[in-house]
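REQUEST FORM: STRUCTURE PREDICTION
Request ID: SP-0412
Submitted by: Lab K.M.
Chain count: 1
Length (residues): 314
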Amino acid sequence: MIGARISVDFSSNSSFDWLVFPHGPPPAPDPRPGARPPGRRPRRLCRRRGAARETARTRRPRRLPRTAPRRERPGVPAAPEKAAEPLDGKRDAAFAELAGDLGIWLVPGSVYERGTSDRVHNTTPVYSPQGERLAAYRKICPWRPYETTTPGNRFEVVALPGVGRIGLSICYDTWFPEISRHLAWMGAELIVNVVRTPTSDRAQEVVLNRANAITNQVFVASVNSAAPSGTGRSLVIDPQGTVRAETVDAGDSTLTDVIDLDEVSNVRRYGTAGLNRIWDQFRPGDPTLDLPLYGGRIDPATWNPAHTTEEPPR
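STATUS: Completed
RESULT:
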């Protein structure tokens, strides 16, 4: 059974799916002023069976990070060290078989990967309709101090033959505009941001994803888990920042959309709202701009992104 699922059909006959596995119904919102959002309610403790429960009245509530669920149950991931396995393990074979059987491009959220020296990474793989893993992206920006996985050190843009190019990001990556900018510069026309956010900052993530789409003139698909592991609100955004499709709550959902990746080239050619051409900002002869934060610089000679996929002539 599939939980929050997004299926995107491109202008060609190819389809691209990514899945977030099922979870139960979301907790009802608390109408009281100052009440905690779903997923951050005070944890009830019990010393032993039959003992009196300690509640928020007698003990200060404890906030739990995303990577430390209250207890292991369906839909709530285990700790990274318990769930991690090598990238080419049984889980990888199952996802590859699923993509091949369905004949789809598959991004199955992210998984805990056990890498070298027993390090654990938060990793998003990509599978082809032929049942092959084409790429795997390791999350660059873990949600610190709560997330304990080892950061990745490279950007990942995947060419889907006959479709286009997608860039990969995971959850907290979207808070760092440098990641989306580099994916767009490397030629991504769609950024797939897979998420497991059970906290109230999903509202800010929605804004950030729209901003990343606007400032880089790319499609963005941000896919959040359903309850109880996440708060939902998955969405597809076009290169001008318009939300094309969105789930309305944290329940299990199937979100579909049909997008034309040529819109990326059109927006960059004519400008956002017919005005703003950010990728044409710098011209030959403009001075370089030092970026002390990065120990680098913006060079007008290298500002323009890789060419996007163009539809073949008819």
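NOTES: The chain has a mean pLDDT of 80.
Reviewed by: T.R.
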